[in-house]
Design goal:
Chain lengths: 371, 371, 371, 371
Amino acid sequence: MKTRLAFLYFLLISFSILAQEHKHSSARPLNFPDIPGYKSLKTDLHIHTVFSDGYVWPNIRVMEALRDNLDAISLTEHLEYQPHLTDIPHPDRNRSYTIAMAEAKEHDLMIVHGSEITRSEPAGHNNAVFIKDANPILQDKAEDAFMEAKKQGAFVFWNHPAWYNQSPKGNPIFSDFQKERLKKGELHGIEVINSVDYAQESLALALEHNLTIMGTSDIHGLIDWDYTEKGNQRPITLVFAKERSIESMQEALFAGRTVAVYNDLMVGKEEFLIPLLEQSLIVEKASYANNTHVLLLEVKNITSSDLLFENESEYTFYDNSPVFEIKAGETKKISLKTLENKREVLLKLKALGCFTAPKQQPTISYSITVK
Amino acid sequence: MKTRLAFLYFLLISFSILAQEHKHSSARPLNFPDIPGYKSLKTDLHIHTVFSDGYVWPNIRVMEALRDNLDAISLTEHLEYQPHLTDIPHPDRNRSYTIAMAEAKEHDLMIVHGSEITRSEPAGHNNAVFIKDANPILQDKAEDAFMEAKKQGAFVFWNHPAWYNQSPKGNPIFSDFQKERLKKGELHGIEVINSVDYAQESLALALEHNLTIMGTSDIHGLIDWDYTEKGNQRPITLVFAKERSIESMQEALFAGRTVAVYNDLMVGKEEFLIPLLEQSLIVEKASYANNTHVLLLEVKNITSSDLLFENESEYTFYDNSPVFEIKAGETKKISLKTLENKREVLLKLKALGCFTAPKQQPTISYSITVK
Amino acid sequence: MKTRLAFLYFLLISFSILAQEHKHSSARPLNFPDIPGYKSLKTDLHIHTVFSDGYVWPNIRVMEALRDNLDAISLTEHLEYQPHLTDIPHPDRNRSYTIAMAEAKEHDLMIVHGSEITRSEPAGHNNAVFIKDANPILQDKAEDAFMEAKKQGAFVFWNHPAWYNQSPKGNPIFSDFQKERLKKGELHGIEVINSVDYAQESLALALEHNLTIMGTSDIHGLIDWDYTEKGNQRPITLVFAKERSIESMQEALFAGRTVAVYNDLMVGKEEFLIPLLEQSLIVEKASYANNTHVLLLEVKNITSSDLLFENESEYTFYDNSPVFEIKAGETKKISLKTLENKREVLLKLKALGCFTAPKQQPTISYSITVK
Amino acid sequence: MKTRLAFLYFLLISFSILAQEHKHSSARPLNFPDIPGYKSLKTDLHIHTVFSDGYVWPNIRVMEALRDNLDAISLTEHLEYQPHLTDIPHPDRNRSYTIAMAEAKEHDLMIVHGSEITRSEPAGHNNAVFIKDANPILQDKAEDAFMEAKKQGAFVFWNHPAWYNQSPKGNPIFSDFQKERLKKGELHGIEVINSVDYAQESLALALEHNLTIMGTSDIHGLIDWDYTEKGNQRPITLVFAKERSIESMQEALFAGRTVAVYNDLMVGKEEFLIPLLEQSLIVEKASYANNTHVLLLEVKNITSSDLLFENESEYTFYDNSPVFEIKAGETKKISLKTLENKREVLLKLKALGCFTAPKQQPTISYSITVK
């Protein structure tokens, strides 16, 4: 009917105006620099919508991701846990992905096809991402689900292994089930950060078994309510990919090139976390104060994380505490007492909020040329 | 299966913890005082969810309302416009209401059963609230839908009559359709505020035809994104009811006892807007400055709206501009030059942001006793 | 002594570094546009330091003025009231001016030479600015002080005539003393705003006797404490001068070309206040919404005052309240229902917080060309 | 003259109203808990006014101190360096103290009588506080000034020994002059924090020579401009005194019972810094999460400093980073994975921003009883 169509058209128009406004207002974009040889992709690969036990339509997830300045998301609906099944009796478990793809079409956001394989312990919860079809992954036996995921070329990671609902001590239990999956090449990553939880025991497992280090929001409600309005950022996985593409992202995840980030906490293998931190600070100025041997530096943090450092240089500071923060986007003045005027100075900083292993914080070095 | 059940239980637990936290964090509660003889109920009776063309599950609407400190909401899904029908092929048009009722059970929020009757102009969009069953209201002919709504005892109001999609000049067109409904007792109210739009021409119609004055959010996305983060509050209808109950609310709406509120704009009939404003300010202190005839007042705005006034008292101010704002919750010092010391002083203030008719702002009076 | 000199040098260096930093950090600069034919100079011509009953050294006054982005200040020390005389037994009443001049030398701030002639009522307090030498203005008889000020070519204005310490009713008393001064050409202006006090009775006197309208801070302590940290701006006089020079400023003051400003309150003669307001708003965009007769405007307030308006155009608004604020620096979207598409539209706005006479607010007009 | 007196009276009234308002508005009060056996007095013993090279009258210093919630200040005017001497040719070097005492009379603030003995290196700058008369301390030879200070019972500390104007490498030079003073009992303390400068080399000297550790603002301009508006707090010395009195404060300083504080940096001897930190946190709740071994703690920081910690407990955290901040006044939720349910748990935290010696951060312990 002509009238109905016109009516529909107007409604669509008015919503897309809305969507554009959101794009511009992003008040909380996440930012991290690329590292030598790789693009740093900001990803959240653990998300739910009304198509499993979440509470929003997939388009809201796309808009949230755009506000957070993400490069990629995956809507990983539980295949087995479907509390809205009465109202959304979907015969096709790919609907969430399909709707998100349509919404993302006009935006610069990659949608990774994914699903959550959900069991009680010991199998626990696991995300399969870069899948081709969610339907055949729904299997009676967990083992069969993992096998199918592997068949589709999926990257599979273990979700919140330290979740106290499945592990009452709050520590991950690496059971025979995981060992078997690992052996069969069916398990590739592990969440060390899930929502607000960081488990250094999970980090230990990642390092021991060479699993890719993951951080995800596992959002069910609204990012605004669970993170933003509490002053937090959503947890993400930085993926160091050769290009900004789905395929490169997948390759990087299999290769273990990640850093998990939640607010000011960064967790990753030394070989990725150190270059990330070294690119995160830019020494914008370096010159001696008149008639002194005090070297004045201006150092900018170009990330969206506040970064915390302890001075480990050969030289002490003139008017800073040796423990100091450079807030996201801030340029900090640092003054080094070099005792004589130098041409080259090595600034060594321990990144107190970053971990390459349990209780292990990296030290980064900047070689500074004085003009 | 036992394990599955345990798993379900944990998920439910963890979400309800979340919900409680939300309840406490409400950063933007709407507040308005009762008026003599009536409770002031804060209501939003025009809301959508995934069950028509909205983008969230009904529980999110309940949580948003709790954050806004509302007394009542109605999820008024379009009966005829169902863009998510493929995924949500509901045979029962009351589902949205049923789910919201379950969610609201533990909270102090009233859910009004409602539906939207949606046509092109001249019928346009109309909300029927306090219905008993949404299903029979879905009719081919608009006239039949209104008749059925009346049969169920519904209070029916005309939505955004000035919406430019249906009225390109941006002014409401009160057609034969509306005249007929009015005559048959099938139309009782009119939105003068819909989302961010206020039409004083709609207010003129409300006064001319004695329609109840309504304000609603018409929310489809998130209250946070469309209102809160832009510094706005959601539009509401204050309903002056004999008691805090569904039935009293319904009686009050039929009786036309409302004020529509959006941020600092209040629109209502003089007989309700003036007492509302008079209750909104409290004179907390009144005494003369030593050795002077300058009367020092402390006046508190107990509403969540910033209120704008112009002094129309017999006396001028000592150290205030005659045009001044008292912010939500603020206590303002006002000093009146009464020329001699008085026992009783009449403070007369024109409420510049409030309207009882187009271009007609009310003046309120406070009789102040000096201690 | 060499050592002492070196020591002095370092102290000077370190203070000047400080001063530069202040210049950059100005967090509260006052801004107002020029009007056709005139520069709008931001001035505060009523200020005290330790050289009368103030509490800071003159250099602090210069720095405060730079932070407020003023064009000119005058340090108007009381000649007769000298509570710090024991410690500062100055033989030369020009010291405050001399020190401020030295401090201002490197900055783009004009220092107007001034003094306060201080008596009880009926003479009251009066500022003489653009004087040449403060010493001879100190006289036993008030009449002689005014005569000397006139001899020096001073512009003289009556301070806070409504001050309740001298006028217990809080209203100005225009006595024979003032009449005599006026007749002799020894009184040229009147404060309608002094610190936080606005007296519309003083405005009435200004208009009746053709006195220049003045607004001043009368600061004794710190601008930060008395104004800024309470969310206020310092009161100023906008002087509309042919050039940005002391001489032009003086000519403009004698000619009565001023507007007094305190926060959002602006008080001035119609012939200056209306052009000031008309330059204060810039219509940045004007175009019709697709397929409608709704004209979308983007209007920027380029001043540092929040401005409050009421729509008095022929047309009503689509999605704004007819009473609205445009905050300092803000660009506001306004949508006019012009009923048909027009090439030229007249936007008429009443400036609710501005006064050209007691209870008299000006209406400004913008002729808008639609692209 | 009667009129003049009345006039004076009004001015005094109006200023005292002002003063009261300031007292209430203090937006930045410093707070630190007492430690076992001692009151923690918040002191700033290095301050200037117009009576040496500062830029405000002494009353402003009193008001600043009240806003900062200090217990004691000393106005330590340079005896030898008097740039305002032309205008303030004081014959009595105690004037600054006398005026401050008068101002402080109605307030709960202690004024310590002090002076600065000012020389080039090697003597450098030194403050003598708890003096009786400043005049005889003004001596040609530095040695004589120290001798006189000792005679008066003064506590003397070395100011900013690392100041690059006197020590171009930015490191303190402990010369024969200091050694001699120390031997004669004429030097008792050393600034490790002066204005924004912290020198760990000065801390090393304090520990080596058993000098009292001091932190001071050395303010010349305004506390607001140099500290507050840059987001900093003024540096202070916490003095651990048996009572809240001048005499106890003096005894404590001679006994070396201090911690220097600047924002989040605290520097002191282990025996005082550890109890201060242990009193700074209060464990408000401790209980196990249902059906888990996760111990939920709520820990409140009752100081005005943000405190930074690293977990060094036997147990890891459930949903916190092991490096975390508890902001001033904040209550932080911390969850410990104790692996089994315990009655007593030891929480061990390294205070990352606090120093008991160069590069030496203290670890504090809380024995927590679980209900």
